[in-house]
Structure formats: structure tokens, C-alpha cells
Amino acid sequence: xxxxxxxxxxxxxxxxxxxxxxxxxxxxxxxxxxxxxxxxxxxxxxxxxxxxxxxxxxxxxxxxxxxxxxxxxxxxxxxxxx
Length: 82
What we know:
Blueprint: E1 3-6, E2 9-14, E3 20-23, H1 26-36, E4 40-43, E5 46-54, H2 62-77
Antiparallel strand pairs: 1-2, 2-3, 3-5, 4-5
């Protein structure tokens, strides 16, 4: 499945169903889930801890998607490299 990573950590992923998930900090992830009424991201039948499911309603909203990917990128770069 296509994904993005930095420092050895994935921060976005497409699953087989074509859904997009972005890895966010706990606080950012919860705020995003609350704001957009979405849940956790699953891939291969497993819930991906730390990933928020991006609702289809945001797919055409480039500014929001870019900001989310940037937050994910910044978050994984705050983690120790693998």
C-alpha cells in the first residue's frame, strides 16, 4: 500500500479500500476526530494506533489535507529515528 514516511516512521497510508489515514499526535488526532466526526484508521483488518481516518468529504480540500500531512510529518520527526 502507498505510504509516506520520514525518519523511518510512516505518517500517512492508503489501505486496500482506498481510505487515507494520517498519523498524528494524541492531542491532534483526538481534536481531528472530534472536529470531523471520524474514527481510527484500519489497514489489513487492524486498527492503526495513532492514525486518524480522513473522511472522503475532505478529499478535495487541499489546504486541510496539506495541513494534516504537515502535522503528521512534524509529529514523526519529533520521534527518535528508527
